[in-house]
Amino acid sequence: MNSSSKDERARNDPSELRDVIQLLEDLNEVGAEVAAELNLETAVQVVTDAATRLCRAAFGAFFYNVTRPDGEAYTLYTISGVPREAFSNFPMPRNTQIFAPTFRGEGIVRSDDITADPRYGKNDPYFGMPKGHLPVRSYLAVSVLSASGEVQGGLFFGHPEIGVFDARAERIAAAIAVHAGLAIDRAKLYRAAEEEIDRRKRVEAELRASEETLEAKVAKRTSELEVESEERRKIEGRFKLLVDGLLDYAIYMLDPDGIITNWNTGAERIKGYTASEVVGSHYRRFFTDADRAAQMPEKAMEIAARVGKFEAEGQRVRKDGTMFWASVLLDAIHDEQGQLIGYAKITRDVTERRQAALALQKTQEQLAQAQKMEGIGHLTGGVAHDFNNLLAIIMGNIETLQRSLDNPNADRERLKRSADSAMRGVQRAVALTQRLLAFSRQQPLDPKVVSLGRLVTGMADLLRRTLGEQVVIETVLAGGLWNVHVDPNQLEIAILNLAINARDAMPDGGSLNIETANAYLDEAYAHQQAEVLAGQYTVISVSDTGCGMPRDVLARVFEPFFTTKDAGHGTGLGLSQVYGFVKQSGGHVKIYSEVGEGTTVKIYLPRWHASDLPQDSAEPHVTALGGDASEIILVVEDEPEVRAHTVDMLRELGYRVFEADNGKTALQLLGQHSQIRLLFTDVGLPGGMNGRQLADEARRRHPDLKVLFTTGYARNAIVHHGRLDPGVQLLTKPFTYAALASKVRDMLDVAADRKGILLVDDEPMIRAAMVELLGGCGFAVQAVASAAEALDALKIHKDTIGAAIIDVGLPDRRGDELVAEVRAIYPSIPIVIASGSEDPELRRTFAGYPQLAVLTKPYGIDRLLEVLASMGVS
Predict the structure, then answer these.
(1) Are 830 and 854 in contact (CB under 8 A)?
(2) Which residues contact 144 (CB under 8 A, 6 or more apart)?
(3) Is residue 313 left, alpha or beta, with left meaning phi > 0 and alpha meaning psi from -120 to 50?
(4) How far is Cα 92 from Cα 99, in angstroms, rounded to an integer?
(5) What distance in Å separates the CA atoms of residue 51 and residue 54, rounded to the nearest whole number?
(6) Which of 365, 415, 538, 862 has the least CB density, counted as fewest CB within 10 Å?
(7) Any bridge partners for residue 34, and if so which?
């Protein structure tokens, strides 16, 4: 029977009508009960129970959506007709083909036998009812919607028998679903209202608590501020008492323009003004007229504003016009935003302290002079003793030779022994003189770029032969050792002196260790030492296992003629010579020793930053030391006997010789004899022109003239900072016949220097290409990659470099900065500046420089040669 026939029967059958009326009453009752219930869970349970009963279902369930306070949605359910545990082990019905239409709100789903429905059993993992599920054949489901049409859940009913649910059940389920939707809406609104009320209560409670806390904080902070204010008043009072009580210090404040704003008692006592006399005036009134003219007050404020403070000592003027020495401090004062608001000025009268310091300085100078004179006395006494011994040897043997000149039967062997003995005495005198010059830092040095590792290795055999078999020599050479710029001969002598001292300290034999390493002396160490600059050094350490030295000996080891050796076993000049040589080379020497433990001497030599060492070259083979009459030499010497002896030796060697006793005569001879090839001149000459000035003028007139200097004492004319000027050739007096012959021959045999090019570019490929191209054009190219190497190369090869090509972009400084530095040292050297781009500013910077050109890369070799030729370099 279908539903329409059932409805028709209900209208005709009174019993059916009563059922309908009862049903409506039941529905109204359910609606009233649900409407009265504001608790969501209770209202939903009422709906589920009523719908299950009215639809005549064996069991029913209501699945509905709930939103947590954090906004996350999840599903709850209520059960009617069976225990809740019957569903607890099964998943929520949500995405199966049977349940999905209801949760999507697609209408009522009714089936007389759900197992026969084609959608039944299509989902994993059960493909039907899970094991243990309630037996369901008749099935009815209806969506529960909110007032806005949103699906809130679904009512589901089941019965184990077939065909239980009809149209009446559908209408009941639909009607109850409406009540359920309204109940959920009301419950949600009620819950939202409750939550809003709770939230407002919490906010009100928090506000009340916050107000109470704020009031407490305000009260506490007010109390603290009162305490701080009182403390500040006390501190300010104590500070004012302190400042006013400092009678030895003038303390006052200035505004940003230098106007005095306050004045303490000490300022009144020192300067003589009361506060009423100076407050509001400028503090320049305290300066001398000269300082005011030089704007010293304004400069002091400018420095303080820029760097934070200004400190100085100088003369200041009191109210009565008297002068006093003041130590002043000017501090800049800024506000929290960093704005300058004024200056704090502190002045102290240091007149008495300065006078005491001057008196102490004078006393110290007098003491130093006395010590100096005592040292000179020891020095002259030692020199006189040693020279008298040597002169006795020389004089006695020369007298023997003189007595034998007129005796044709004289013993030639005896005469030869006398001559040899006299010559040994002369050589010892020369050595003594050189040691004294080294100690006094007047020994002319001829520095070269030296690898200490190579030098120490080369000395190994010499040291073994000198020290003997009882001394075991070990060398430890560090890798990556920095180069140094020193006189290698003097350095070898210094190492040999240290090695001989070490041998003498080990009479029974022992171990001598020579080590090399790189070192850095920092500012703190350099400040504690005499004549030491902070920086990078290469260090040679010479250590022995000898007897060591006590402290009193250690304190005097560098004094000349001080020795602990027996008479005749040492001059006392060895360590003093080492000390003088190292200091003259810009280095540092330190000695460590303990009695019974041995001695270590460390020589620190400044690092040389040029990377290239000169290549070793074989000594030229000299076939003959003499010359011929076509080679003319001019000898300039003011000492007649020395000049006559020198001229005789040169003529004996075969040279044609002219002689002069002063610079003026020498220039006249040069003008009369243009064939003169070598000028051999003493450095010290009479008549207002020394040897260096003579050489410069002679070369100006005769550019190809060779110049050889001689001197018995290195003067500033050819030696600066203890080193021979670049390109200077020197033969030190006294010189032997062989030394003179060899030096003169070497100078005359050397071909004219070929003009070279210094190329400064950090790009290896550019350097290689330019060396090849310029070399093919006849130039000798010295290529370096940095500004530091360029300056080093100029010092070493100054006389052979005729021009420089400098790239603008260098790793250690800009090329234009290097150009300015090179021009400051060598004003006349032609320079080509190479730039990677057209730079008008660069051209403007060097527009007024003579002998300077700017080339933009890339440029051809022809263009470069043209530019060099325009500056006289070809």
Answers:
(1) no
(2) 62, 64, 151, 152, 153, 154, 155, 177, 180, 181, 184
(3) beta
(4) 10
(5) 5
(6) 862
(7) none
Three-point CA angle 248, 251, 256, nearest 5°: 160
Residues forming a β-bridge with 782: 758
Write down the pLDDT at residue 660. Answer: 92
618 by DSSP, 3-state: which?
A: coil
Stretch (H or E) spanning 276: helix 275-278
CB 759 within 8 A of CB 789: no
pLDDT in tens, 799-837: 677 888 988 888 777 777 788 777 766 777 888 888 777
Residues of the chain with pLDDT under 50: 1-3, 6, 10, 375, 438-442, 567-572, 612, 614-624, 716-717, 720-723, 751-754
Q: Which two tokens stand for residue 266?
A: 């000490």
Strand-pairing partners, residue 514, are 475, 542
Q: Is 433 helix (H, G, I), strand (E, B) or coil?
A: helix
Angle between helices 3-12 and 14-36 (to 10 degrees): 100
Extract the tokens encoding 704.
């190809």
pLDDT for position 722: 45
Q: In terms of residues, how long is the chain? A: 874
Q: Tell me, what's the pLDDT at 619?
A: 40
Please return the burial class of 805, using the count of CB atoms within 10 Å of its CB with bins 0-12, 13-18 and 19+.
buried
Class of residue 623 by CB neighbours under 10 A (exposed 0-12, middle 13-18, buried 19+): exposed
Contact 579, 521 (CB under 8 A): no
Is residue 675 within 8 A of residue 684, CB to CB? The reply is no
Residue 221 burial (CB < 10 Å; 0-12/13-18/19+)?
Answer: exposed
CA distance 769 to 776: 11
Cα separation, 180 vs 80, in Å, equals 15
Q: How far is Cα 487 from Cα 443, in angstroms, rounded to an integer?
A: 11
Q: Report the distance separating Cα 400 and Cα 417, nearest Å.
A: 10
Strand order in the sheet with 852-856: 780-784, 756-760, 801-807, 831-835, 852-856
Distance CA 109, CA 106 (A): 9
Query: What per-residue confidence (pLDDT) applies to 783?
Result: 82
DSSP letter at 115? G
**pLDDT number for residue 678:** 92
Residue 669 has what pLDDT?
92
**Within 10 Å of residue 126's Cβ, how many Cβ atoms?**
13
The position carrying tokens 């994993």 is: 124
Helix (H, G, I), strand (E, B) or coil at 147: coil
Alpha-carbon distance of 538 to 482, in angstroms, equals: 6
Enclosing H/E stretch for 495: helix 488-504
Q: Count other Cβ atoms within 10 Å, centred on residue 589.
A: 21
- What is the rounded CA–CA span in Å between residue 705 and residue 669? 13
Q: Which helix (H) or strand (E) holds 738?
A: helix 737-749
The tokens for 104 are: 């999507």
Helix, strand or coil, per DSSP, at residue 324 = strand
CB 711 within 8 A of CB 717: no
Q: Do 427 and 564 touch, CB atoms closer than 8 A?
A: no
Question: Are the C-beta atoms of residues 56 and 166 closer than 8 Å to each other?
Answer: no
Name the strand (E) or helix (H) holding 489.
helix 488-504
End-to-end CA distance of the chain: 129
Residue 542, strand partner residues: 514, 601
Contact in structure between 762 and 809 (CB atoms under 8 Å): yes
Distance CA 611, CA 244 (A): 64
Cα–Cα distance for residue pair 478/481, rounded to 1 Å: 6
Q: For residues 810 and 822, what is the distance between their CA atoms, to the nearest angstrom?
A: 15
Helices (H), 585-727: 640-652, 663-672, 691-701
Question: Does pTM top 0.85 for this prediction?
Answer: no
Beta bridge partners of 732: 711
